[in-house]
Amino acid sequence: MAGQGASPQREMRRRNLSRVLHAVAEQGPCSRAALATRLGLTRTAVSTLVEELLRGGLLAEEGTTPPGGAGGGPGRPGTALALTDRGPCGLGAEIGVDHLAVCAVDPRGEVRARARLESDGRNSDPVVVLARLRTLVDEVARQARELGLRPVRLAVAVPGLVARGTSTVVRAPNLGWHDTDLAGALAGAGAGAEAEAGVGVGVGASASAGERGLPADGGSTRVKGNSTRAGDRSARAEGSAGRALPLIVDNEANFGALAELWLDSGRVPRDFVHVSAEVGIGAAVVLSGELLRGTRGFAGELGHVPVHPDGPRCVCGGRGCLEQYAGEVALLRAAGLRTDGPRDAALTALSERAAGGDTRTRDALEEAGTALGIALAGTVNLLDPRALVLGGALAPLANWLLPALERELRGRTAAPGVPPALVVSGLGAEGPLLGAAYAAVRLVLDDPLSYQA
Amino acid sequence: MAGQGASPQREMRRRNLSRVLHAVAEQGPCSRAALATRLGLTRTAVSTLVEELLRGGLLAEEGTTPPGGAGGGPGRPGTALALTDRGPCGLGAEIGVDHLAVCAVDPRGEVRARARLESDGRNSDPVVVLARLRTLVDEVARQARELGLRPVRLAVAVPGLVARGTSTVVRAPNLGWHDTDLAGALAGAGAGAEAEAGVGVGVGASASAGERGLPADGGSTRVKGNSTRAGDRSARAEGSAGRALPLIVDNEANFGALAELWLDSGRVPRDFVHVSAEVGIGAAVVLSGELLRGTRGFAGELGHVPVHPDGPRCVCGGRGCLEQYAGEVALLRAAGLRTDGPRDAALTALSERAAGGDTRTRDALEEAGTALGIALAGTVNLLDPRALVLGGALAPLANWLLPALERELRGRTAAPGVPPALVVSGLGAEGPLLGAAYAAVRLVLDDPLSYQA
Fold first, then answer.
1. Which of A4, A113, A356, A421 sits most deeply, having the most CB atoms within 10 A of its CB?
2. DSSP letters spanning B87-145
3. pLDDT at B207
């Protein structure tokens, strides 16, 4: 994560500071002794690192840990170290088909501020939508600052394809957008008065000029590494360097999967396929804790896997894609519900009718579950993942989707033995927004030297 | 690759010896100066490493390189260093549905000895088949020794699912095998008189006892690392330690993809999906030069991706799987050819009729190409690979499969722009056998200290 001129000593320090922060993030408040044991460092080395992180405003001290408590093993009671809740925060934004949402998440993964606006995105003008989004971002950033937090990055989840390492939405059929670069319209969003005064955000005081302009080295939301540089660069090219918050733009399904990995963990292994539905159906493949982005950034288009190759025409140009059977419009239509009204009301009506035993609704959900099962059977045969996670709008409907889905999976997977675990997301439709915001702040844990209190 | 007690110095030496060998493998015969430049090591360091590899019988000197030639840049003419053709060799074996094949490959990737036996494997007794295979392996090992080569490992490609990190064929429907462990039947195969005399093969003289029994750390054929240990261990458990050749067992599609990556390179990028057909249809997913094995080792079952979900019943228990449209039996039947005779004759007849313009044959191939295109469109939507490689029995039929396959791919991939490159394998049906043999010898390049001349 260093500039090319960075010294090995500085790199080692950066790496060890990051290891301390990730260890605290994973195991919660803990003592210096527990950290030393966990990281295989001397108590002295850990104390030095911790002091630097306390001074830098990334760690905070919290009362005392009980002997042997909080992962500490035997030893004297000590001060518990926790991630700060008054330091950096990530701003996450979601461009939905019928709403815009923004939130601020602190390094602990907790939502500290949020705003939402109903906004019809279908065949919308990006200029109008992005201006609205910008207002929301500024509002949430203001709230976050009032809580003592400092926004360090903005990450935007979009229902479409984003070219790898860019901030350009190549195609978002449900918005009617194509080749839309978000960097210009969002340059400076959320930066606030502090940025106006010229204080750099997201670049440490001692960072060399080279660090600001490092070339992209791949995807923008890998769990580890400096892979958001691409977004940083494009956003900075639009704003003036050191003012605008660095920008990350990614597909909502990718952020949804990362949220699952980071924020709903314990329930989800490190190899899984995350299926998320808003109006469209997307997926993300996570292998050994890393998102598979694909050569161009277009992996995970589960919604366009052919289910009945001679079926209805799809927006993608194909026929009989999964979305034609399990997408929201197909599902509402099959259940006899309106598809042109407010989405939340329609989905609530769908759940209520299913819960009430309405046959037509149950049949529609069974057909959707069957189609999901067929597409996922192919996925499992190809990838042999440890788990499948149902997220987004599918999560609350899981009760009625799962029986058919599981039947198809069992009947169509070539490998013997137990098929992958089916997990229903605990984050549901919130996943992409939370994942975006946490991706934005998590980079401070990856590179603590980029943050200056 | 070291035992737990190995010193850092020994590890560094091991790593640098391996880097030298891989550099020579990649760029062909070259000078010490060229190696030093390429590896960023001093001329002296390279000379020391090269001397050790010459003494150890892994490198050989070959005449002189021209000034500036063979990747050397400007400089004096020097002795060209090449991988030995009289040192270690890998034994590869293939259990086909109608044949058994074995070959020996030297570190240069060249086949030095081979044997093949027509042998009907359909619903066969593993004991009988493996006894025949063992005879072939012994014969090829004998030939290899006569050429001054020393077999270091045996790798077996099977048309079925192999549990990750084991030598057990969990299910091979076209052989009628299930839960068949190959280690017992093949223990000692190819080891020869040399092994009888108690000379360890595949373990260096200075290796500690711990190195012989290292636990498995994952898949058995990764490009780098000591990931064949699982096979080693199971084979050694059967034979007596130091006598039997270490054994690797893997799916034929995996070895086919590795052959493409290692032996047909320049044509194939490091992110691709390799489709290979024998009687069944398999695939392997390669990401950043690494094989995706899947949680249980069962990734790549493209043949069982649903194409027409209500289609004919498949051996896997599903319906309308790709194999039901593009598998060999389906293809021959659709073309009006016998499916119970010799495979080679039937496939030759198929090609000849297609070349002669026979309508029924052309239609059968178009239907198979369409089904392949539908299944691969789903694959591309999920994984966004850089290329698709057609291998195995599909390669010689590519002329007649590709038009329909490309049409489906174009029409059904959600992402805009250029779809992945379609590459026809230059190795064809030889791929799995060559990949197995090279996987077996390549481990010496990964860990030169494991080999003793």
1. A113
2. SEEEEEEEE-SSEEEEEEE-TTS-EEEEEEEE---TT--HHHHHHHHHHHHHHHHHHHH
3. 29
∠ CA B346-B351-B356, nearest 5°, is: 125
Token duo for residue A55: 């001074």
- Helices B343-355 + B359-383 axis angle, to 10: 100
Residue A46 has, within 13 A of its CA and on its CB side, a CA count of 20
DSSP state of A304: G
Q: Considering CB atoms only, which of B295, B319, B412 is closest to A318? A: B412
* pLDDT in the model for residue B417: 77
* pLDDT at residue number B146: 96
Torsion, Cα of A42, A46, A47, A53 (10° steps) = 170
DSSP lists the bridge partners of residue B286 as: B272, B291
Q: Does B421 touch chain A (CB under 8 A)?
A: no
CA distance B91 to chain A (A): 28
CB B379 within 8 A of CB B372: no
pLDDT of residue B408: 96
**One-character DSSP codes across A50-85:** HHHHHHTTSEEEEEEEPTBTTTTBSS--EEEEEE-S
DSSP assignment letter at B436? H
- What's the confidence (pLDDT) of residue A5? 53
User: pLDDT tens digit string along B282-298?
Assistant: 999 999 999 999 999 99
The type of residue at B263 is L
- Asked if B321 is an interface residue toward chain A (Cβ–Cβ < 8 A), one would say yes
- Tell me what pLDDT residue B193 has: 58
State both tokens at B116.
């093949």
Question: CB–CB of A382 and B307 under 8 A?
Answer: no
Whether the Cβ atoms of residue A254 and residue A239 lie closer than 8 Å to each other: no
For residue A156, give Cα distances in angstroms to A181, A187, A256. 12, 12, 12
Q: What is the pLDDT of residue A217?
A: 33
A346-389 per-position pLDDT tens digit: 999 999 999 999 999 999 999 999 999 999 999 999 999 999 99
Contact, A213 vs A233, CB < 8 A? Answer: yes
What's the CA gap between B82 and A302, in Å, rounded?
Answer: 47
A31 and A73 Cβ atoms separated by less than 8 Å: no
Distance CA B138, CA B144 (A): 10
Sort out which chain A residues have CB atoms less than 8 A from B298's CB and list them. 384, 414-415
Rg (alpha carbons) of chain B, rounded to whole number: 23
Q: Rounded to whole angstroms, what are the CA distances from B416 to A221, A296, B410?
A: 22, 10, 10
Classify burial at A215, counting beta carbons within 10 Å of its beta carbon; exposed 0-12, middle 13-18, buried 19 or more.
Answer: exposed
Give contacts of B 40-79 with A, CB under 8 A: none
**Cβ partners under 8 Å of residue B99, min gap 6:** B116, B117, B118, B119, B121
Output the pLDDT for position A428: 85
CA B308 to chain centre: 31
Sites in chain A below the pLDDT cut of 70? 1-6, 64-78, 193-243, 265, 453
Cα separations (Å) of A254 from A232, B294, B405, B420? 18, 20, 29, 21
Stretches in chain B below the pLDDT threshold 50: 1-4, 68-76, 195-242
Interface mutation target, options A272, A281, A376, A381, chain B, most CBs of B under 10 Å: A381
Q: Does B386 touch chain A (CB under 8 A)?
A: yes
Tokens 């493209």 found at = B302
Identify the DSSP state of A450. Answer: G
Q: Nearest CA to A393 among A304, A281, A298?
A: A281
Which residues contact residue A250 at a Cβ distance below 8 angstroms, ignoring those fewer than 6 apart? Answer: A155, A156, A157, A158, A162, A220, A221, A436, A439
